């Protein structure tokens, strides 16, 4: 690295506020992150104020306290969401507060706890904050998700490095690389990157395929696409027409499937950390859009609960393309964190579809979105299916097949 760690952390924080969340004068900003990321959170807060924010709200999180809650509280306590928590979230939404979430959790921090309790707690929170979650997914507000390296997370990515410090440094380096912080002019590099992704999205939007067919070892799956679907990439617009970048890093071009139409089998190619547990070696069988069977070599019970116990959890809500040669994939690492792993691989998501994935979607009611084929759900969980062996065809309304991916790379 050319600069010191502190220099890069500064460049990163500034980039996130300017290019990601695009904070401007008189904005209110919420930052959510783990207590061990205080140095980064303070930098982000300062850059937000310097960009003109009138108030920055910080919501501190802590894996270890969360584990204590999940261990000692009864299922009744865990599922009882206090009114003030809902009021706070709804007030911030009404004020159009821009929301920045920092991911740094130990992907396995709830390992060994009762999956039924964890699932019930997640479900209760998602249901209580339904209004806020749905509004965010319809881009009512600007929101950005970024990552920060923590020792526990880094240890799962670099188990062969000797010390927690070496592991954490290595993970930070990957985060800086993937977010283009090491480039000469990171803000310009992002503009160029967004333009490249937009080109792919524009082609797919023009094609308006009726369905996609995926084939790879262990995968033979056809997924329908709704009428007037929109392929999106890095940049989004909030309800006020302000631009923001929802994920940093991001390498994907994505849309919503028609949740009634998925047929076949798909095998995941990377593990997934969901609900504080690592799930690995997954296969899914789909019939008429619904998952009819799931298997996993690790974390099968958690996966089954995800599919069976959450409203909309057994239907697809996202299809996304990422070439196998994308920079994050080229690192050859498994990050055990969706923000990184989804940007290294073609993926699908179970659960909620983004309202912006269809023309006029952000103005539609939940019923209208459902009628248009966009899955409504309390969850949104990406799982990775891409590899260098994956081919994908677009199927037109008259049954013509046009290559989209060949051997893991864009075919156009
Ligand atoms: Zn995605
Ligand atoms: Zn997703």
Low-confidence stretches: none
- Strand numbers in spatial order across the main sheet: 14-13-10-6-5-18-19-20
Beta-strand percentage? 15-25%
Number of DSSP strands?
20
Q: Give the domain tally.
A: 2
Major sheet:
8 strands, antiparallel
Radius of gyration: 20 Å
Alpha carbon gap, first and last residue: 35 Å
Question: Count of DSSP helices?
Answer: 14
Task: Provide a descriptive summary of the structure in words.
The protein has 14 helices and 20 strands. It is α+β, with helices and mostly antiparallel strands. It folds into two domains: 174 residues, Thermophilic metalloprotease-like, CATH 3.40.1830; 199 residues, no CATH class. The structure holds zinc ion (2 copies). The site of one zinc ion has 7 residues, from strand 15.
Keywords:
alpha+beta; globular; Thermophilic metalloprotease-like; 4-stranded parallel sheet; 14 helices; 2 domains; 8-stranded antiparallel sheet; 35% helix; binds zinc ion; single chain; 412 residues
Question: Topology of this protein?
Answer:
Layout: H1 5-20, E1 28-34, H2 38-50, E2 55-61, H3 63-72, H4 75-79, H5 83-94, E3 98-103, H6 115-128, H7 130-137, E4 143-147, H8 151-157, H9 164-178, H10 186-207, E5 211-216, E6 219-224, E7 235-237, E8 243-245, E9 253-255, E10 262-267, E11 272-274, E12 277-279, E13 283-287, E14 290-295, H11 300-309, E15 316-321, H12 327-330, H13 338-341, E16 347-351, H14 366-371, E17 380-384, E18 391-395, E19 401-406, E20 409-410
Parallel strand pairs: 1-2, 1-3, 3-4
Antiparallel strand pairs: 5-6, 5-18, 6-10, 7-8, 9-15, 10-13, 11-12, 13-14, 15-16, 16-17, 18-19, 19-20
């Amino acid at each position: 690295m050319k600069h010191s760690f502190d220099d890069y952390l500064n460049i990163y924080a500034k980039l996130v506020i300017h290019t990601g969340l695009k904070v401007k004068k008189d904005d209110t900003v919420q930052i959510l992150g783990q207590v061990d990321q205080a140095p980064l959170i303070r930098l982000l807060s300062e850059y937000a104020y310097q960009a003109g924010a009138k108030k920055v709200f910080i919501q501190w999180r802590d894996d270890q306290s969360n584990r204590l809650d999940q261990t000692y509280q009864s299922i009744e306590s865990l599922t009882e969401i206090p009114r003030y928590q809902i009021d706070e979230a709804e007030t911030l939404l009404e004020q159009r507060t821009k929301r920045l979430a920092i991911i740094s959790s130990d992907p396995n921090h709830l390992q060994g706890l009762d999956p039924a309790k964890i699932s019930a707690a997640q479900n209760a929170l998602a249901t209580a904050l339904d209004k806020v979650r749905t509004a965010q997914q319809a881009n009512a507000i600007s929101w950005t998700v970024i990552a920060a390296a923590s020792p526990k997370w880094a240890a799962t990515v670099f188990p062969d490095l000797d010390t927690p410090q070496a592991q954490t440094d290595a993970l930070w380096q990957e985060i800086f690389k993937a977010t283009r912080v090491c480039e000469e002019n990171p803000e310009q590099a992002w503009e160029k990157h967004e333009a490249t992704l937009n080109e792919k999205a524009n082609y797919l939007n023009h094609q308006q395929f009726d369905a996609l067919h995926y084939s790879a070892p262990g995968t033979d799956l056809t997924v329908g696409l709704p009428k007037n679907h929109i392929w999106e990439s890095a940049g989004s617009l909030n309800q006020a027409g302000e631009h923001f970048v929802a994920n940093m890093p991001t390498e994907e071009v994505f849309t919503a499937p028609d949740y009634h139409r998925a047929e076949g089998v798909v095998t995941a190619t990377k593990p997934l950390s969901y609900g504080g547990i690592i799930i690995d070696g997954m296969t899914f069988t789909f019939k008429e859009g619904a998952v009819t069977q799931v298997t996993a070599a690790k974390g099968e019970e958690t996966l089954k609960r995800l599919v069976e116990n959450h409203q909309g959890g057994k239907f697809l809500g996202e299809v996304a393309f990422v070439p196998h040669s994308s920079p994050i994939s080229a690192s050859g690492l498994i990050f055990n964190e969706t923000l990184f792993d989804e940007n290294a691989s073609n993926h699908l998501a179970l659960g909620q579809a983004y309202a912006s994935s269809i023309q006029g979607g952000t103005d539609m009611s939940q019923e209208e979105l459902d009628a248009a084929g966009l899955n409504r759900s309390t969850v949104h969980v990406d799982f990775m299916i891409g590899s260098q062996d994956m081919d994908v065809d677009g199927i037109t309304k008259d049954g013509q097949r046009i290559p989209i991916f060949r051997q893991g790379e864009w075919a156009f």
